[in-house]
Amino acid sequence: MIKALWLALGCVMLALGVIGAFLPVMPTTIFLILAVGCFSRSSPRLEKWLLDSPTYGPALRTWREQGAVSRKGKTYACLGMAAGYALFWWSAHPSWLLAVGVGLFFIASAAYVLSRPAPKASDSASPDARG
Fold first, then answer.
1. From start to end of 1-131, where are the E strands?
2. Beta-carbon neighbour count of residue 88 at 10 Å?
3. CA distances from 18 to 1, 23, 86, 112 (A)
């Protein structure tokens, strides 16, 4: 029963990640990170499929192994949050209280992303490892 719940949650996170790949104001990678975590508890096959993805696999593996985010990833995340906030401001015409609350959430999220370390070079890329 619990395994089925993890699988269902992983599928929801995967669906949100796919949607985020097409919508500029919705994140992708965080949902895929959550999907990998859910699949690790329910479906090793789906977990491997995501980790082996040519598009998202490297970022997911780097996060899992090092808790790191690339400079490019940090840039896209912050630009996406800024664009999302601008779209929110323009389309929702929020009250000042809501605008400040959402702005603080985005600032805290960006600070977290920016505080993550940069990925370390893999051992396989070093000259000594090539032999």
1. none
2. 17
3. 26, 9, 22, 23
Q: What span, in angstroms and rounded, lies between the C-alpha atoms of 91 and 131?
A: 57
The sign of the dihedral angle between the CA atoms of 50, 54, 57, 61 is positive
Residue type, 110: A
Element (H, E) at 8: helix 2-22
Q: pTM for the full model?
A: 0.76
| pLDDT digits 0-9 by tens, 17-38 | 999 888 877 788 889 999 999 9
Chain centroid to Cα 63, Å, comes to 9
User: What is the C-alpha to C-alpha distance for residues 40 and 56, in angstroms, rounded to an integer?
Assistant: 16
Of 4, 74, 98, 83, give the one whose Cα is nearest residue 42: 4
Alpha-carbon 26 to chain mean position: 10
Single-letter code of the amino acid located at 120 = K
Q: Which two tokens mark 68?
A: 């790191």
Q: How far is CA 15 from the centre of its chain?
A: 13
